[in-house]
């Protein structure tokens, strides 16, 4: 059997972090088995669905690198097909016309409540003779078996049994002829050839009701895998109070997509004790058996740790492209060609221990800043008259160096020894001169990336500037 999975978000807002993980699980499962990963936009709620939300979902998936097969399917556009299936169920006696009004349904439930009975609505029209049907508005309901059990063999939750007398005869077609979401999902999944439905466990009860449609139509039931929701660090359902919810916010905070994929994959799924892994490894390893039953807890520290590892392991050119995208979505000034060249030369010393792109760009300040360098407050303190005098005395030693790391280290070490001091006393003024910051990459890395002329120009300016 060729595997076909799908991600089916409702376009009523941004791509939620939980939705992103669901999409990732579906993508990994399909890609790891040579199958297809499909995308369906469940836009039947016309009042709440917006083109902007659809665009935000597509952008979020694109940032995460979750490519889908084929065209994006609009559920709303399949309304005629959904209604056709409802009529087919009606024709074969698996569904019926219900003429009960909202007032009658409410009265039934109120009376059942008073008598201590189940408030599950039992339509008097279920077995009514069609000859008795009035000329009035009606809905089409599915005839749910009233005895026995519906069994869901779930790949995550295990065997779930629901008594059929706990399921209502759900509406398939409203009185205005429009299909309901529950019908549309089943028809779309069948028509799209979906073999595995991997979704949040808040849909577990829906599976029992949807199986009634599969059974009545004689269709194959997909493999179910209902994954636990994501909770915040406090163990409560993830919400705005825990921080960012939309995938777009994580991109704007400067997390790399590879790190985000790695973290989301580990959020509820495990492969032994492996924490850091590549896309290729995740695709090879991912299976439904590795998904836990308990809700996963979102942990920003773990996310940052993994993102830092992915930044360090990333290809320099790919990292630059992602930084360009980060600057674009945050509305910041794009890199000039000169800055890009400098970043490319210095990436080896920039990406170590940077957990986010803002951190990496701060480390790259010495490349991105203009000359003469304007020191910040802490750096200015490192450029007192004594320190400026040290820079003046050091400059000839650097001018005579051949500008390799070994030569620069040797020249500064010899100078420090002549001065009866340690290199640490030189590092502060050099950082301030080269970057205008007190915390920077190694001074030797900065000098190598900037080159001899630019480095000496900055040191000379800092040494001779009265204000530092």
From TrEMBL:
<dbReference type="GO" id="GO:0004818">
    <property type="term" value="F:glutamate-tRNA ligase activity"/>
</dbReference>
<dbReference type="InterPro" id="IPR014729">
    <property type="entry name" value="Rossmann-like_a/b/a_fold"/>
</dbReference>
<comment type="similarity">
    <text>Belongs to the class-I aminoacyl-tRNA synthetase family. Glutamate--tRNA ligase type 1 subfamily.</text>
</comment>
<feature type="binding site">
    <location>
        <position position="240"/>
    </location>
    <ligand>
        <name>ATP</name>
    </ligand>
</feature>
<dbReference type="Pfam" id="PF19269">
    <property type="entry name" value="Anticodon_2"/>
</dbReference>
<keyword id="KW-0547">Nucleotide-binding</keyword>
<dbReference type="GO" id="GO:0005524">
    <property type="term" value="F:ATP binding"/>
</dbReference>
<dbReference type="GO" id="GO:0008270">
    <property type="term" value="F:zinc ion binding"/>
</dbReference>
<comment type="function">
    <text>Catalyzes the attachment of glutamate to tRNA(Glu) in a two-step reaction: glutamate is first activated by ATP to form Glu-AMP and then transferred to the acceptor end of tRNA(Glu).</text>
</comment>
<keyword id="KW-0648">Protein biosynthesis</keyword>
<keyword id="KW-0030">Aminoacyl-tRNA synthetase</keyword>
<dbReference type="InterPro" id="IPR033910">
    <property type="entry name" value="GluRS_core"/>
</dbReference>
<dbReference type="InterPro" id="IPR000924">
    <property type="entry name" value="Glu/Gln-tRNA-synth"/>
</dbReference>
<dbReference type="GO" id="GO:0005829">
    <property type="term" value="C:cytosol"/>
</dbReference>
<feature type="domain" description="Aminoacyl-tRNA synthetase class I anticodon-binding">
    <location>
        <begin position="340"/>
        <end position="462"/>
    </location>
</feature>
<dbReference type="GO" id="GO:0000049">
    <property type="term" value="F:tRNA binding"/>
</dbReference>
<dbReference type="InterPro" id="IPR001412">
    <property type="entry name" value="aa-tRNA-synth_I_CS"/>
</dbReference>
<dbReference type="InterPro" id="IPR020751">
    <property type="entry name" value="aa-tRNA-synth_I_codon-bd_sub2"/>
</dbReference>
<dbReference type="InterPro" id="IPR008925">
    <property type="entry name" value="aa_tRNA-synth_I_cd-bd_sf"/>
</dbReference>
<dbReference type="GO" id="GO:0006424">
    <property type="term" value="P:glutamyl-tRNA aminoacylation"/>
</dbReference>
<feature type="short sequence motif" description="'HIGH' region">
    <location>
        <begin position="9"/>
        <end position="19"/>
    </location>
</feature>
<keyword id="KW-0963">Cytoplasm</keyword>
<dbReference type="Pfam" id="PF00749">
    <property type="entry name" value="tRNA-synt_1c"/>
</dbReference>
<dbReference type="InterPro" id="IPR049940">
    <property type="entry name" value="GluQ/Sye"/>
</dbReference>
<protein>
    <recommendedName>
        <fullName>Glutamate--tRNA ligase</fullName>
        <ecNumber>6.1.1.17</ecNumber>
    </recommendedName>
</protein>
<dbReference type="InterPro" id="IPR004527">
    <property type="entry name" value="Glu-tRNA-ligase_bac/mito"/>
</dbReference>
<keyword id="KW-0436">Ligase</keyword>
<dbReference type="InterPro" id="IPR045462">
    <property type="entry name" value="aa-tRNA-synth_I_cd-bd"/>
</dbReference>
<keyword id="KW-0067">ATP-binding</keyword>
<feature type="short sequence motif" description="'KMSKS' region">
    <location>
        <begin position="237"/>
        <end position="241"/>
    </location>
</feature>
<feature type="domain" description="Glutamyl/glutaminyl-tRNA synthetase class Ib catalytic">
    <location>
        <begin position="3"/>
        <end position="304"/>
    </location>
</feature>
<dbReference type="InterPro" id="IPR020058">
    <property type="entry name" value="Glu/Gln-tRNA-synth_Ib_cat-dom"/>
</dbReference>
<comment type="subunit">
    <text>Monomer.</text>
</comment>
